[in-house]
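The passage that follows is intended for readers who have already worked through the single-chain material. We present the inputs for a multi-component assembly, then the predicted structure in tokenized form, and finally a short commentary. You are encouraged to pause after the input and sketch how you expect the pieces to fit together before reading on.
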Amino acid sequence: METIRNFDQLTGHIINNGKVKRIAVACPHDSHSADAIKLASERGIATFTLFGDEAKMRSLGCFDNLPVTMVNEPDIDKAAALAVKAIKDGEADILMKGSINTDNILKAILNKEHGILPKGNVLSHVTVMEVPGREKLIFMSDVAVIPYPNFEQKQQMIKYVLKCCRDFGIERPKIGLIHFTEKVNPKFPNSTDYVQLVEMANKGEFGDCVLDGPIDVRTAFDEETARIKGINSPLGGDADGLIFPNIESGNVFYKTMTYFCRAEIAGVVLGAQCPVVIASRGDSRVSKYSSIALACTIS
Amino acid sequence: METIRNFDQLTGHIINNGKVKRIAVACPHDSHSADAIKLASERGIATFTLFGDEAKMRSLGCFDNLPVTMVNEPDIDKAAALAVKAIKDGEADILMKGSINTDNILKAILNKEHGILPKGNVLSHVTVMEVPGREKLIFMSDVAVIPYPNFEQKQQMIKYVLKCCRDFGIERPKIGLIHFTEKVNPKFPNSTDYVQLVEMANKGEFGDCVLDGPIDVRTAFDEETARIKGINSPLGGDADGLIFPNIESGNVFYKTMTYFCRAEIAGVVLGAQCPVVIASRGDSRVSKYSSIALACTIS
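Having made your guess, compare it with the prediction:
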């Protein structure tokens, strides 16, 4: 397949692919979610079943002439449970949260009896970023779900980022394991974790890919910086993806890029039976739509 | 005084001020340091005493017609110790490192007998950033020296950032205490530290200033984001300075801004008897010169 290099290409890719995904949404009571659902329906990339307060949903005036199904359940926790049940019963391919807190939808996902997290799986968030003027996307984890990933969680984060890269047509993704320096120092366990992860990658445990770290954000993207520092990084300043050592650094990258560089982002939680779209209130309409399109591409 | 809004104004401010600072440099054996020293000498903002391998320094061909004094000491640790001694003896106002590792210059600063760290002082790094298109500078700590600041260190970082802001003519600096969300949660001790620090600020313990946190980077700079999130931040999206919770997040901000936004940076270590310029190899010539000018402004 051709590599998807921006969010516009993403929509075309899904439509050409011909597989219309079914999305179960919990509580789309806000106009931002409703707009994104409307756009995705109109463009024909997905069909929707909306679980929530029907009166609130109808009052948004977005869904009138669209092929969406509504299930009236005014209680938000019950609505979340119903959306999760739709996934469990094979009636939907993707889960999405509307205007309920992330904690509430996670509770439904993690529920031991009725949830959709396979035993032993790690839930983690992958963000895809489109930067104006940049000729390809940036994939990263985890800016939202795992605060301080341990070694096992870092492995999963790498696997999820690689999966997304490959589903976007990048055959040999290049991933930077982010630290504040390229020096390895046992005082900073992230740096020694990274050494082990790079060894695993070199043995082929993550499939065809290039992993390098510890490396700083600039060196991951700029060959000139690597040259000045005397670092011979296999990324060659051409990273596709980034693994962040903690939620603070991931969040700073994401917020800095969206504000100062007008980057657009799409995000999805992986690890459950299906991708979960948990776009937040602060996200733009474009971002919410792109998150839906991202989930459709990788599910 | 008029507020200094970019690095160009900084040079004019120092020259108008009329106080030429004396800088002791350890091992300026590289062309980047030499260029910056040359520029600062030519512009008349400082005089220099260079401690290092005289043959190496002369071979750079930069210092021939400049008012610099050279002290030949080929051993780098001894050269660092001599530069520190110049500060201790009152013969210089600012310490600067050339091409020796930060660890080596810190060792000389921290030396119990011959060092220049007053007992109980916290060493911390302050970065000043000029972003193309932005109408004022951004001050921040700590992207380089303190990896995981405790409560006491956070207080000092705030004081150092405030001092720099005020020396640049900002009467009531606005400082954002950076976290990945605005929510306070005891599971994340940074967020509870921040609540206490804001209380201290509100009692006037940091002088005239506005502190807000926990807050994310975007919300610190963008009133619209704050509005969408329903946050009434006293920063009003107009932060002058940022305090980072760890070195990874600070480093990500600094590297992201210099690479993606072409920001220029100046940096200085505070807490010792004098400001210490520890610009690194990867820094540009402009950045090294601006770091010298920064140190001249706040010493």
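Commentary: Residues 151-167 of chain B form the longest helix (17 residues). Chain B has two domains: 1-117+272-299, 124-268. How closely did your sketch match?
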